[in-house]
Amino acid sequence: MRKYGLSLALALAGMGALALPAAGASATATSLPHLERRGEATQLIVNGRPFLMLAGELHNSSSSSLAYMKPIWPRLEAMHLNTVVTPLSWELIEPRPGQYDFHLLDGLLAQARAAHMHIVFLWLATWKNGMSSYAPVWVKRDTGKYRRVIVRGRPVEILSPFDRATRAADAAAFAAVMRHIRAVDGQRHTVLMMQVENEVGVLGASRDRSPAANRAFAGPVPARLLHYLETHKTRLNPDFLRYWRRQGEKTQGSWAQVFGQGARAGQIFMAWYYARYIQAVTAAGKAAYDLPMYVNTWLAGHGQPPGMFPSGGPEPFVQDIWRAAGHAIDIYSPDLYASNFSTWCRRYHVNGNPLWMPETTNGPAAAGNVFYDVGEEYGLGFSPFAIDTPFRYHLPHGREPWNFGAGGGYQLPTLAASYQMLAQLWPRIAERETHGQVRGFALNSWPGKTEFNLNGYRVHVSLDEIFGHRASTGFGLIMADGPNRFLGAGRGFKITFTSLKTGEPVGLAWVDSGHLRAGRWVPGRRLNGDEDEQGGAWRFDGMKMHLEKAEVYRMEK
User: Fold this and answer.
1) Edge-to-edge strand ranges of the sheet holding 49-51
2) β-pair partners for 99
3) What is the pLDDT of residue 42?
4) 319 and 237 in contact (C-beta within 8 Å)?
């Protein structure tokens, strides 16, 4: 195995580069990666320190071959990733019942360590994208023992969540995987988290129509679920609560009596049984090695009925059903390709659910969305899909508003540049987000603007514009950096300040560019004139990524 010129010891040391030093770190160096609420933020703690996953998800089949992966690792390292999100499939782990092959798992761990990266494994087992293509062939063949979902009277390529034999086999394999990871990685913490299954739910119908499913649907709604809904009524998803109330808000009866007969009733019904299944598999894995574990979600398109998207997956509408089913799952995450990125983030960052973005769109949008994710929602990390495939940028009509002159001086926003900046800023973000002193934004269309209160001022952010040139996108974050002082990073936007008390403008005392070296600020140029609109605005033009400090002052009368 290629070592990329680094010893294993250096590689392992390098993986702590985004960790914030903490008192007593030596005493907690062997503690498991875990989630911890610290003030206003939930943080992933690795070796006693907050860790930000600057990640990317591989194509589905890339990591099934160590030889195929070998040249990919240095490319990912050059993109400033510190974490790789990659499948680990049941069919390759357990090719025959009860016989486990961990050669691939061990090889991926060794390659990740050599590239000084962490891993988040996706346990692709009973389901992947709603279907069951990653189950071992011995499971697929034995349809008498491992039963299928029935849609329109016919079995489909989806294993049924009502089948106890399938659940037991999946849970046993997952527990074996976690025991092995504990044995080979329990002191190294290369593996940070586990995803259990992938984008689960019934496709082609709102619910399973197998005999077992029909019997369950005709039977009573479990008392545990109804008790949860009744006792958590003030925190339920508003859309779900309205639906339940339209059905009469019943607290006993069959599924049809309580939730009706339509597609939404089928979605709620399937959510409970998928959740019970996956909570059980997750609990088996945690009993072997207690890492943070999450499930991801194929999001419904606008107006789509259940079945056109996987019915029963942890969409916001049924996320409370999943919570009622158990406590083993730590995070519910969206697989987010929709354009309204911030809206979906807010739908998942609710009721104590931390935001982890395990799969999202790649390309220029990702470069900005990560700032919103980390700066505004205090996300645990960010991971565009197909990270091992270079994204080909296509400009509309071959031009960009900021592309000046022949050849142009404009550089397209890249995820690598965003990751490099966030890695530099992470120690300060990690400390200040616990006090709610960080705000992030991604402005994607004119007149793109946002505003918020921070550090005693009203902060107004808008897309940058000067000499008739407008930025088409702008993104970044700003944080408090002492009384009247701010630290900002990003590109394509500008900031003005007003008084919280009077609403009157606040002046810019000074603006400095610079960088952080070993966590300490190293000032560069003092910016003035066109760079700050003669003191009128703190500008982060769209030509490149900026890291700057500013101080403001109140105008005396």
Assistant:
1) 34-38, 41-46, 49-51
2) 96
3) 98
4) yes
